[in-house]
Design a protein that fits this description.
Blueprint lengths: L3 E7 L5 E2 L15 E7 L9 H4 L31 H7 L8 E6 L5 H11 L5 E5 L4 H11 L6 E4 L4 H11 L3 E5 L16 H18 L3 E6 L11 H5 L2 E6 L6 E9 L7 E7 L2 E4 L3 H5 L10 E8 L2 E13 L7 E4 L3 H15 L6 E7 L11 H13 L7 E3 L2 E2 L5 E2 L4 H10 L4 E5 H4 L10 E5 L2 H8 L1
Parallel strand pairs: 4-8, 4-9, 5-6, 5-7, 7-8, 15-16, 17-20, 20-21
Antiparallel strand pairs: 1-2, 1-3, 9-10, 10-11, 11-12, 13-14, 14-16, 18-19
Bound molecules: thymidine-5'-diphosphate and magnesium ion.
Length: 461
C-alpha cells in the first residue's frame, strides 16, 4: 500500500515545504503555497516512469566516464526542421535528445507553429500529442495549413504512462506535446497543471528524450506577467526555452530564445500569421520599416541588432505641448527609463525645452528592443517631432548616447552597415570610435562619424 504524503508547493517558483507558509522564502511571493498530494509507489522511479510502461530494456544502464577525446560529436546530427526561423533560434536545428519548451500566451499561435513544423518533417515519423484539442480540431487546423505529411500521427491523451505506451509502439523520430499543463502522471496524485505534476511530467519527458535521443517539443502556457506557468524549475529542466510573442492585434509573431544549451540566446525568428498558417519572414527590415509615401517628422531609422541579425527599425516619436501639469512620457517597445534619460540628455546637453512637452515613443512593428544602439535614433526622432522637421528617408543611425551627450560605439557595426546598404540607405550616423579601424570605403554608404550629440543634430536638421 502506497503511503500518502502531502507537501506544500509554491505555485510561483516551485519551492516546497512540509507545512504551509505565507511568504515563499525562495521567491518572496505571498500566498502561493498550495498543498499537493505526492504519492510515490516506489521511491526514485518517478523519472523512470516512461520505462515502467515500456517493454524496451537496457537503455538506462549505468553510465561510465569516458575520455573527452573519445566522445564523437557530429554537427550534422542536428535535425533540420525545414523552417529557417526555427532552425535559427534553435542554434542550427533540433538537437537529438533535446527537450525544447515553447512558451507563449494563449492564442498567439503555439499549436499552429508546432503542427506546421510537424507537417514539414517529411520522411520522419512525428507524434503530435494533444491534451488541448480533439482529433477533429487538429485535422481542421491541418486542412487549413494545407500540407500533407503521411508520417504525422495525432494522439489525444493526457496521461503520460499511456503516452509512453503509444510512443513505444510507434517509435517516432520527433514528439510534440501540447501542452505540459494538460499532462498528468499517475505517479503523482495532484491535478494536471499543478507544480508537482508539471515537474513530474517534464522529468519523464526529459528522461525519455535523453534515453532515446528523440527530440521532444513541449508547449507551455505563459501567465500574464510573462513567466511560464508552473514552476520556474521547468525552465531549468529543459534544454531550450523559446518564447513565442507578439501583439495579438498585429500579424507579426516573434520567436525568441530565452535559454539554449546548444546555441546563442539572443536569436530571433519572425513570422507572419496568415490565413493558412505562419509564414517565415526572412527579411524583417522590410516589414519593420512601415510603408511611407511621404517623409513625416518624428520618424528616424535605427540600425539595431537582435542576436546575429541586423534589423532596421523605424522609431516613431510624438512630442506635443503638455496639457496637464506633469508632462507624460510613454514608450512602446523601448525602455521607458532609458527614454527619460535620453530626454534629460537632450534637455541638458542640447538645450532643448522638453520639460513642457508630452513625449510618446513607439517602435514600429510591435517589437520590443533593448539594443543601446537605438539611442541615437530615439533622440533624432524626438528632435524631429519637436521641431516638426522630417529626417531624410535615406538616413539611418546606430550609436549609443552617453549621459554627457557623447556618442558611443556599438557592437558589430559592419553587420549594421551591410544591412543598411542592402536596404538602400545612403547615409549612416555612427560614433567616431566605431569609425576607427573600419574600412569605410568598403561600403556603398556615406558614414558620418560623430563624437557629440550636437554634431549629429546639426548634421540632420
Ligand atoms: P493557436 O495555435 O491555437 O494558439 P495557441 O496554441 O498559442 O493558443 O492559434 C490561434 C490563433 O491563430 C487563432 O486566433 C487563429 C489564428 N490562425 C490563423 O490566423 N491562421 C491559421 O492558419 C491558423 C491555423 C490559426
Ligand atoms: Mg494551443
Amino acid at each position: 500500500m502506497a503511503k500518502i504524503k502531502t507537501l506544500y508547493f509554491c505555485q510561483n517558483c516551485g519551492a516546497q515545504s512540509a507545512k504551509w507558509i505565507g511568504r515563499c522564502p525562495s521567491c518572496g511571493e505571498w500566498n502561493t503555497y498550495v498543498e499537493e498530494v505526492v504519492e510515490k509507489t516506489v521511491p526514485d522511479t518517478a523519472a523512470n516512469a516512461w520505462k515502467a510502461s515500456s517493454s524496451v530494456g537496457g537503455t538506462s544502464k549505468a553510465a561510465r566516464p569516458k575520455p573527452l577525446g573519445e566522445i564523437i560529436f557530429e554537427e550534422e546530427s542536428r535535425l533540420n526542421t525545414h523552417d529557417d526561423e526555427l532552425n535559427r533560434v534553435l542554434g542550427g536545428g533540433l538537437v537529438p535528445g533535446s527537450l525544447v519548451l515553447i512558451g507563449g500566451e494563449p492564442g498567439i499561435g503555439k499549436s499552429t507553429l508546432m503542427l506546421q513544423i510537424a507537417m514539414q518533417l517529411n520522411g520522419l515519423r512525428v507524434l503530435y500529442v494533444s491534451g488541448e484539442e480533439s482529433e477533429q480540431q487538429i485535422k481542421m487546423r491541418a486542412e487549413r495549413l494545407g500540407r500533407q505529411q503521411p508520417g504525422l500521427y495525432i494522439l489525444t491523451e493526457t496521461n503520460t504512462q499511456n503516452i509512453f505506451r503509444q510512443i513505444d509502439q510507434l517509435q517516432p523520430n520527433v514528439v510534440v506535446v501540447d501542452s505540459i499543463q494538460t499532462l498528468h502522471s499517475t505517479l503523482v496524485e495532484s491535478g494536471a497543471g499543478s507544480v508537482s505534476q508539471v515537474r513530474e511530467c517534464t522529468a519523464e519527458l526529459l528522461k525519455y528524450a535523453k534515453d532515446t535521443g528523440v527530440p521532444v517539443l513541449l508547449i507551455g502556457h505563459i501567465t500574464k506577467d510573462g513567466s511560464i506557468a508552473g514552476p520556474k524549475i521547468l525552465e531549468h529542466m529543459v534544454d531550450t526555452v523559446l518564447q513565442f510573442e507578439g501583439d495579438r492585434h498585429l500579424t507579426y509573431r516573434i520567436l525568441r530564445t530565452v535559454k539554449n544549451r546548444f546555441g546563442s540566446t539572443s536569436e530571433l525568428g519572425i513570422y507572419e500569421m496568415q490565413g493558412a498558417g505562419l509564414r517565415q519572414v526572412s527579411n524583417p527590415s522590410e516589414i519593420l520599416l512601415s510603408q511611407r509615401s511621404e517623409i513625416l517628422s518624428g520618424l528616424a531609422i535605427g540600425a539595431t541588432l537582435e542576436g546575429n541579425r541586423p534589423l532596421l527599425v523605424e522609431v516613431q516619436a510624438l512630442v506635443t505641448p503638455a496639457t496637464y501639469g506633469t508632462p507624460q512620457r510613454s514608450a512602446t517597445g523601448f525602455d521607458g527609463k532609458r527614454l527619460q534619460m535620453l530626454l534629460a540628455v537632450l534637455e541638458k546637453r542640447s538645450g532643448l525645452r522638453l520639460g513642457q512637452h508630452d513625449v510618446f515613443l513607439n517602435i514600429a512593428g510591435g517589437l520590443r528592443l533593448e539594443d543601446p544602439a537605438l539611442d541615437l535614433a530615439v533622440c533624432a526622432a524626438v528632435v524631429s517631432s519637436l521641431n516638426d522637421v522630417p529626417i531624410r528617408g535615406e538616413i539611418c543611425l546606430a550609436a549609443e548616447v552617453g549621459l554627457s551627450g557623447e556618442i558611443r560605439a556599438v557592437s558589430r557595426l559592419d553587420q549594421r552597415l551591410g544591412e543598411a546598404e542592402k536596404l538602400g540607405f545612403a547615409e549612416m550616423y555612427i560614433s567616431q570610435f566605431n569609425a576607427k579601424g573600419l574600412d569605410l570605403a568598403r561600403y556603398g554608404i556615406r558614414v558620418h562619424p560623430a563624437g557629440r550629440l550636437d554634431e549629429v543634430l546639426t548634421g540632420l536638421f
